[in-house]
Task: structure prediction
Amino acid sequence: MERPSQLDRQAIEAILPHRPPFLFLDSVSEGSEDEVVAHRTVEASEPWFEGHFPGRPVMPGVLLVETMAQALIVLYWFNFEVEHLFFLARDESRFHSPVLPGDELRIVARKVRFRRLIGRGEAKVWVGDRLCAEAVITYASSGEKAT
Result:
């Protein structure tokens, strides 16, 4: 299946059902059936920074997991027609370094085992050469085409 290797925000919105403020990918610089490299700029104006944590804002870990899951959906798109995907399990996750307002994220998603209806992928979030988070995520598909 022939796909463009680079995606802008508009192309990502055609793949993902998410919309701001819950769309966590800005672009994809490299995409193939095996790996996706996505990017995101973390803005200081994002609403969760007000309460997480006042005076010392840090991006919540659960949102980093969601960011990695969205990158894995894009990776799924490089392999299959996009369907309704369900996040089944965060099999493993580790948080190594905080993500702060203004950080430029590089999200690398790789397939571990992809099948049409169920699969597993791994992803890492980097800021420069600093590893911030990593996860192994299992998904399932309803088998229905997304609309």
